[in-house]
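Lecture notes, unit on protein representations.

Consider one protein chain, 140 amino acids long.
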Amino acid sequence: MMEILVNALNIKTLTMLFAAVAAAATVLTLAMPYVFVDALDKRMRAVAIEREKIRQRERERMAQENQKVTLRQTPKQYVQTIVDQFNLSKWVGQEEARLKLVQAGYRGHAPYVTYLFVRMCTPVLLFLFSVLYLFIVIKL
């Protein structure tokens, strides 16, 4: 059995075998774009068509509303009033916080004012919550 295998695997046979594998790999490589169609191109076209539909729908909506749509956020009036009354931008305002808000995607003045308001109100609310919890729930 081993002698038949050794006799069959001589140099000529191995050369023919490797040449056949190389030829098959070359044909497969050249035929691959024709056999397997790339679905990415179809998906990109479908996304572009859908995006255009969304744009058209939004243009129609804006034309029907007949009002100017702004992307900038304005802070709530009561939040802005409290921040201005306590002058929080001077006392607790930090450029690091503003930069982190910008990095998080919250650009503009409104998120910064909201941050200052929450920063002032959170300790007070947590204190009230803990007092209520201690004296009502636990009953100290």
